[in-house]
Amino acid sequence: MATTVASEYSNEVKNTPIEHQFNPYSDNGGTILGIAGEDFAVLAGDTRHTTDYSINSRYEPKVFDCGDNILISANGFAADGNALVKRFQNSLKWYHFDHNDKKLSMRSAARNIQHLLYGKRFFPYYVHTIIAGLDEEGKGAVYSFDPVGSYEREQCRAGGAAASLIMPFLDNQVNFKNQYEPDSHGTKRKHVKFLTVEEVVQLVRDAFSSATERHIHVGDGVEILIVTKEGVRKEFFELKRD
Amino acid sequence: MNHDPLQWGRPSDEHYGTYNKSIASASPYPSMHTQQPIVTGTSVISMKYKDGVIIAADRLGSYGSLLRFSDVERLFPVGRNTVVGISGDISDMQHLENLLDEMQTENNYDNEYAEDEEALKPSYVFEYLANVMYNRRSKMNPLWNALIVAGLEDGKPFLKYVNLLGVTYSAPSLATGFGAHLALPLLRKIVDSESDVKKTSAEDAEKSIKEAMKVLFYRDARSSRNYSIAIVDSKKGLVLNKDAVVEDMVWGFAKDIKGYGTQNV
Amino acid sequence: MAGLSFDNYQRNQFLAERSKTVPQATSTGTTIVGVKYDGGVLIAADTRSTQGPIVANKNCAKLHRISPKIWCAGAGTAADTEEVTKLIGSNLELHSMYASREPRVVSALQMLKQHLFKYQGHIGAYLIVAGADPTGTHLFSIHAHGSTDVGFYQSLGSGSLAAMAVLEANWRPDLKKEEAMQLASDAIEAGIWNDLGSGSNVDLCIMETGKDAEYLRNYRTPNVREAKQRSYKFPRGTTAVLSERVLDICQVEEETVDIELEA
Predict the structure, then answer these.
(1) What is the ipTM of this complex?
(2) Less Cβ crowding at N or C end of chain B, within 10 Å?
(3) Residue among C21, C26, C28, C30 flagged as catalytic
(4) Model pTM?
């Protein structure tokens, strides 16, 4: 199409063709969820991979065990997600080479990922990243990142397509938000306590089966990776495929 | 300073005279890498079965709606147990074909293990192509294709997809383009999960692929009746059939359809 | 004033210019099909309706009755398929009473396409019309701009390619009723599993000459949700009542009246 661009600062009309720009991003759906417990952490993700109205794969895992008891998932544009995870795994490998196989702590892993993300500030990795593991005291830790590297340690975080559906549920069921002690007439908030691994896995399964009901980009299966001081364990549960 | 955004950073003409663009041999336009596909190939479809994989692609090269080339090969064997199927822009496909040739030459040259321990495996071929595709998209200069790498690796079927964005995924049945909408629902009736793969014979798989190619020829306006089909089987090895034809079509009922509404003669 | 009101057209045009988002209509990102068979015709639909990526209704009805023996499956804008079908349904009934004849499928087809053509595609209804009338059984599809199609099998909606693949692969002349029901349901299921705009259940409607139409709501239910892992019942008082105020918005007066009944 022959089109011209006029500039506000000059009267002459330039014959610059307007490009049909190539869009380097796409949305591959899916959703992820990390919860930190007292002495464990879980990172879960559904296994559906989509573009638009199509299912590309019913089983394409996006939560990875990187070693050193660190779990990572980068949800959003899958090509960027995989590129980021690979760069982090490579960075971890070099950390081991350079520092005599020293274990990478969660806070150092988090800071490293911030730099990987911010390094592409002007051509960002289009992903919501969550890492989960145990901190230096052996307590469960979850860190979540925005696409350009702003991060925070949290008790729990949902990311991806159905984050807005799952997050309020987590606030209520993990941090007991909006729950008061019965008979206290709203004067005493329900006491926050750590959940057990079994309770957390149940919450995660219900969060994902509910997101599957109401979000078209979520479904097929949920893979839950669990870190304890014994190491990393995997659990898989089927989700609805429609 | 000239405040016209199209002239930012240039000395003002009033003071220095007209800027000589040839000094920096600068193009008057920002660099434009992006393109659009010109001559194109339509869907590639594929599925796993218990002893291997099947992959198929028709032989048409379309120039928009023009049937430009009718005998384009879009399945490329790499080594002894890998086939790469490519859809999308044909010139970019030929560039990829060249890259694959170079990779094979590189691997075979002065390498006595090239046929054994160091033979190219499907996952190596895929990893290479996926990196090429993602790097090109990151330079905003994509190769306008979607590809499927099919093969056998350590006795197990291998099937994986990558496109112009560098997006990759794997599934028991895969298809590019129109095939993802028309052929996949049929292929998924046979293999929807890895457990289905173990129950599926080569005969059933080949039948499904042929049926799907027929439906694509019925309904994809940029498809052709002639196609290539490749099978990588644990016993029979790599077999590439370059002159398959869509057969057993049903057109008999068409004569009974009259007009578009109320007409009945 | 008869017809649609365009009072808000200019205002909405202005609003659309000023904001990035415009109100989105509920679209029945849908799979619908129709199949003719030996002695009849049937239509089928999935039951998911969506607003963007969110499922608005998990079990909506996309099969509409135009007349007792003429039914219609709708894809596109939910409100448009509903309204256009109701409008043409009433006009067709008036017409049939005036003419003292049973309504015909071609009449419904002609009235629908002329109505949709008049609105140049702004009424986003994509329909598969089928039915039995004194001239036999018929199957048509109509697009929002007013074009129509005839065929032994039809599919429409975002899952139309998945459904059409199944129809192209398995349709043959002279299907029996049960075979046609199976084929149509399988085609809808292809949409349910493969198209994200479609999901949940299969609805079916069968029309045969000389018989009442058979509407089989939720003919197949392949997507029943499994029980949740936990109970989310809260103890009474978990949500605090911070303050309470009762307003009398009407005075109630009670009065006892003795009535003497005369014998």
Answers:
(1) 0.92
(2) C
(3) C30
(4) 0.91
